[in-house]
From TrEMBL:
One Pfam family hit: BPD_transp_1
Family to which the UniProt record says this protein belongs: Belongs to the binding-protein-dependent transport system permease family.
Keyword Zinc-finger in record: no
Organism: Microlunatus capsulatus
Keyword check for Transmembrane: yes
Domain ABC transmembrane type-1, first and last residues per copy: 87-303
Membrane topology: Multi-pass membrane protein
Compartment list: Cell membrane
Chief location of this protein within or outside the cell: membrane
Coiled-coil portions: none
Name used for this protein in its record: Multiple sugar transport system permease protein
Length: 314
């Protein structure tokens, strides 16, 4: 009787041993780590350590009688019911809704105009729009504070020559829009450059295909250019959200010419600064700063999530 021979399973070959790194490769890795080491050291010393220390301070309270004591989340609970802090956050939310669409709309318009190639002296115009971003915000606030001045500013002097009252730039109502004007003047050029760089990366074949189909320049801008620069627009929106809630220099310097209009809590950053360096309440200021950071992160994440969902639908 013949017996069937069952083939014995052969042992698979051992996986090839991973070769060790060559000396040249090790040198490359070592050089790469050395190049990035200064960044990590500075990032750790200037960002992570101060953040951790501020978070540590926010859990304590300093009193004249009793010294420093651990209070847990009491400072955060106090901030959530602080009318000054909440009103400053609400004011900046309104600032975001009014200022950012105007700034990004003008930035997009200028970028499209320069990219169209139909603008004369485009390099000079581009430089002229971008130059205000190179001006420090302190200098810009001082300059506009002089221009807004109701007694010495040129606008007030011209109005006086015409027999008109001085423009209400520094009144309680006008200050909001005066600061919007300063921020727009500073950052339209910066955002324009980001959008313009995105426009220059669009393949020209898309424009040629649109023109072959009879599309006008306006149609090409609306249907080809703007959809392709949407990631850049989202980036500028996120930068604008962060910058709006960190507004400090402009209201702080304009406060010197309008002290009755801009108080210590005009913006959240100004309020945290006043708490820390005027009221000497560092612990509560740290809690305010952390809550402000949470607001900024939540809004930035909401913008990214909205953009991602819109991309998934398209």
């Amino acid at each position: 009787m013949a017996t069937a021979t069952v083939p014995t399973p052969t042992r698979s070959a051992d996986p090839p041993r991973r070769r060790g790194l060559t000396v040249a490769k090790k040198r490359q890795y070592r050089a790469a780590y050395l190049f990035v080491l200064p960044f990590f050291v500075i990032f750790l010393a200037m960002i992570i350590v101060p953040l951790a220390y501020a978070g540590y301070l926010s859990f304590f309270r300093r009193q004249l009688i009793g010294g420093v004591s651990f209070v847990g989340f009491e400072n955060y609970a106090k901030a959530l019911t602080d009318a000054s802090f909440l009103s400053s956050v609400a004011r900046m939310a309104g600032f975001l809704v009014v200022q950012v669409p105007v700034m990004l709309g003008l930035s997009l318009f200028f970028a499209l105009a320069l990219d169209s190639g139909m603008t004369r002296l485009s390099k000079i115009i581009r430089l002229g729009i971008f130059v205000p971003y190179a001006v420090p915000s302190v200098v810009a606030a001082l300059m506009w504070g002089y221009l807004y001045g109701p007694d010495f500013g040129p606008f007030a002097q011209v109005a006086g020559l015409l027999g008109l009252p001085a423009p209400p730039f520094l009144t309680s109502t006008g200050m909001f829009f005066s600061i919007i004007n300063v921020v727009n003047w500073e950052f339209i050029g910066y955002n324009m450059i980001i959008i313009y760089a995105a426009l220059r990366s669009i393949p020209p074949e898309l424009y040629e295909a649109g023109r072959v189909d009879g599309a006008s320049e306006k149609r090409i801008a609306w249907s080809i250019k703007i959809p392709h620069v949407r990631p850049a627009l989202v980036l500028t929106v996120i930068f604008s959200v962060i910058g709006t809630f960190q507004l400090f220099n402009e209201p702080n310097l304009l406060r010197t010419v309008a002290p009755t209009v801009i108080g210590n809590a005009y913006t959240p950053n100004l309020y945290a600064y006043s708490l820390a360096f005027v009221n000497q309440d560092v612990n509560y200021a740290a809690a305010i700063a952390f809550l402000l950071g949470i607001v900024i992160m939540a809004l930035s994440y909401a913008v990214q999530l909205w953009n991602q969902r819109k991309e998934n639908r398209s």
